[in-house]
Amino acid sequence: GAGVSQSPSNKVTEKGKDVELRCDPISGHTALYWYRQSLGQGLEFLIYFQGNSAPDKSGLPSDRFSAERTGGSVSTLTIQRTQQEDSAVYLCASSGGGGTYEQYFGPGTRLTVT
Amino acid sequence: AQSVSQHNHHVILSEAASLELGCNYSYGGTVNLFWYVQYPGQHLQLLLKYFSGDPLVKGIKGFEAEFIKSKFSFNLRKPSVQWSDTAEYFCAVHGSSNTGKLIFGQGTTLQVKP
Description:
The structure holds two protein chains of two kinds.
Chain A: E1 5-7, E2 10-13, E3 19-24, E4 31-38, E5 42-50, E6 53-56, E7 65-69, E8 75-79, E9 88-95, E10 104-105, E11 109-113
Parallel strand pairs in A: 2-11
Antiparallel strand pairs in A: 1-3, 3-8, 4-5, 4-9, 5-6, 7-8, 9-10, 9-11
Chain B: E1 3-6, E2 10-14, E3 19-21, E4 23-26, E5 31-38, E6 45-50, E7 56-58, E8 64-68, E9 73-78, E10 87-95, E11 103-104, E12 108-113
Parallel strand pairs in B: 2-12
Antiparallel strand pairs in B: 1-4, 3-9, 5-6, 5-10, 7-8, 8-9, 10-11, 10-12
């Protein structure tokens, strides 16, 4: 079956603009995660969804970052007023939840803020 | 706070050499442990995982890892590497008392020379 998909694959934006990144998890997976991969910082957790609620938002770096999930499926990560330090690869992962902890990762969105 | 430490940042081996990548974690409770691999230009893939039971776990492509609870370690091994093993390897921990997020090590870049 289909894996986790993300769009766009690449996004170049000007400093100060807002961007939206999309994640389509594996069908039936109740848990969804966003991570960020950047040089020097490695892989960092951003936010976790169980269904449509986000019980753990502890990794969001500032209030410019927000995310939502609708219908227990698609998730959107929004970055407002982008800064150059937001440049990174944003990864989405999903898992079946319910005691299943294996996460399946998407290909990521490479964000470049100029 | 939970953390994961990978001792080797960049490893260069010749084909057929043996591989061991170190991983230590800090977490006092029950943990689930993972090794992920990212081949050049590809997304993160699960290599192997430990949830419980036999502390020696076998994964794909001939990789194995040993969980040593007393040492808080989960080292990755392969008896004989191939050029196709060139990739970045990430150790990660999922503490059972948290909400599902993975804490990753900084990653180890493995370069296998033909």
